[in-house]
Design a protein that fits this description.
The chain is α/β, with parallel strands linked by helices. It folds into two domains: 141 residues, GTP1/OBG domain (Spo0b-associated Gtp-binding Protein, Chain: A, Distorted Sandwich), CATH 2.70.210; 147 residues, P-loop containing nucleotide triphosphate hydrolases (Rossmann fold). 12% of the residues lie in helices and 28% in strands. It is rod-shaped.
């Protein structure tokens, strides 16, 4: 099971304390000589291709960066604190605690300063006063992981989603005659003509249910709608579309949708030109589907 959403607490470092010291220039002249404090550490979120979910944040959800070092005499500046870098999987969206969008980490090594460290205090060098350091930012944020993928497979229960996924990826995930065998999203590469494309297999859509996994369609370029109802497939496709739009109307924008009628080994043809007949039993339509996918994704 993947962990795709967590709430974490961040406390960036406080700035270093200023120095309030004196600097003797001569027997008769003394001025303020205190240096500034160092800057507090930032907390930086960094996208990493080596992570595949947010599981590591279940163990530790509280993070604090170091404070800046204090200033010294003779106008010596305190050392800035090191930043605290937290690696997250590519595809992580950062939201405030209210759920509002802040930033989307979509590329490997992309960084975002989630909490800024405080400025160091100002020492009394050539002054008669000091200025207090600033506290670092303190906040709770939501990490919302959306699986990067090129193509997603969706459908109602027991329509052959995982069988098709296995056929396209040469994997062997569990398949059964009873519904709801797939409990969570899985993904793997499909290779076509030396190109690798990421395919996402999703749990079955439950009508009038929350279907939280649908959020992972955000990054899909193609969505395969599957039905095994050879006479009532239109009703299935309408139900799938309705559930996706109910969850988030943005998920179908700028997406290519292919409509697949599965378990079609005993169907010779269909009048509806928008339907692709596929069967994993005799490979019907598999090569044709791959051609359509490749043509769209390699543009």
């Amino acid at each position: 099971m993947i962990v795709d959403e967590v709430v974490i607490y961040l406390k960036a470092g406080r700035g270093g304390e200023p120095s309030n010291s004196s600097l003797r220039l001569s027997s008769r002249r003394i001025i303020g000589g205190g240096g500034d404090g160092g800057k507090g550490g930032d907390i930086i979120l960094k996208a990493s291709r080596h992570l595949y979910d947010l599981n590591k944040f279940l163990i530790n959800k509280n993070f604090k960066a170091q404070d800046g070092k204090p200033g010294g005499s003779n106008n010596k500046k305190g050392k800035n604190a090191e930043d605290l870098i937290l690696n997250v999987p590519i595809g992580t969206i950062i939201r405030d605690i209210e759920g509002n969008f802040i930033f989307d980490l979509k590329e490997d090594n992309q960084e975002f300063i989630a909490a800024k460290g405080g400025s160091g205090g100002i020492g009394n060098f050539k002054k008669t006063y000091t200025i207090e350091p600033q506290d670092g930012e303190e906040k709770k944020i939501i990490l919302d992981y959306r699986i990067p993928n090129d193509l997603a497979i969706v459908g109602l229960p027991n329509v052959g989603k995982t069988s098709l996924f296995n056929k396209l990826t040469n994997k062997s995930y569990k398949v059964a005659d009873h519904p709801f065998t797939t409990k969570f999203c899985v993904w793997a590469n499909m290779r076509i003509d030396f190109y690798d494309f990421v395919i996402l297999d999703t749990p079955p859509i439950k009508l009038n249910s929350e279907n939280k996994f649908l959020k992972h369609l955000l990054r899909s370029k193609i969505i395969l709608f599957l039905s095994s109802e050879h006479l009532n497939y239109k009703n299935d496709f309408l139900a799938i579309k309705k559930e996706i739009l109910k969850f988030d109307p943005e998920l179908l924008k700028n997406k290519k949708v292919f409509y697949l009628l599965t378990k079609a080994d005993k169907i010779s043809k269909i009048e509806d030109k928008n339907i692709i007949l596929v069967s994993v039993e005799d490979n019907k339509g598999i090569d044709y589907l791959k051609e359509k996918v490749f043509k769209f994704l390699s543009r």
